[in-house]
Amino acid sequence: MGCDRNCGLIAGAVIGAVLAVFGGILMPVGDMLIEKTIKKEVVLEEGTIAYQNWVKTGTEVYRQFWIYDVQNPQEVVTNSSKIKVKQRGPYTYRVRYLAKDNITHDTEHHTVSFVQPNGAIFEPSLSAGTENDTWTVLNLAVAAAPHLYPNSFVQVLLNSLIKKSKSSMFQRRTVKELLWGYQDPFLSLVPYPISTAVGVFVPYNNTADGVYTVFSGKDNISQVAIIDTYKGKKNLSYWPSYCDMINGTDAASFPPFVEKTRVLRFFSSDICRKTCVHFTSSFSTCKS
């Protein structure tokens, strides 16, 4: 019995030592295999997991808006008083739900080009009101006209059309009109062939953003989804120096193996510039 017990202990110790050795050998091998698989599957080419999610994101993307409701429009117009506003919102829309279109692959330069169809669906459950909420806001057409046409004679003509259309510096508009467009009564009277549609995002629905050209990551995995050019350009010609550069991704995806110390850069065509995010803290969305 004693021999059997000692033999069992020795055998157990030997097996444990052997497993420990194999574990020490296989762990790095396993890490290498996992890293190799990730590098293969994140490349933006047909057949990879990343490509499927990149073409049409599986995560819901939302855009929120807040409207500044002017409280004293008459005082501002009459007495040049300091404007008073109240923040209204948020008004939430689901975006980026349409698949990328006109996708072309350049295997020589390891890039992918595409356009991103635009669309916005109102999300009542994530909003403070409805699209029909009406607020007092700046009259975009009236405010912009003097800056677009500084000629004194033209301004006299425009002022007469503004009065004739009963327009003023401020107007009452619904959230939907302000964001996605309305037919402006002042512009409708202008005797020139111009667009009479006014809105912060006119036009948006049924349009497309791009062309974007991004790196596929085939030759350099750290470059995957990084924008090479936007509408054929590497710069915007809007901002001075570094701010004018187009770099980062379109925020739909980022290269793998991202460290917490790394700054994630992405380009937003809506604000015509790049921006970035920094890691601040970790949190869990799981409920115990």
UniProtKB/TrEMBL annotation:
Coiled coil: none annotated. One of its GO terms (biological process) is receptor-mediated endocytosis. It is found in: Apical cell membrane; Cell membrane; Golgi apparatus; Membrane raft. It catalyses: butanoate(out) = butanoate(in); (9Z)-octadecenoate(out) = (9Z)-octadecenoate(in); tetracosanoate(out) = tetracosanoate(in); hexadecanoate(out) = hexadecanoate(in). GO terms for molecular function: low-density lipoprotein particle binding; low-density lipoprotein particle receptor activity; scavenger receptor activity. PANTHER family: PLATELET GLYCOPROTEIN 4, SCAVENGER RECEPTOR CLASS B TYPE-1 SR-B1. This is Platelet glycoprotein 4. It comes from Suricata suricatta (Meerkat). The gene is CD36.
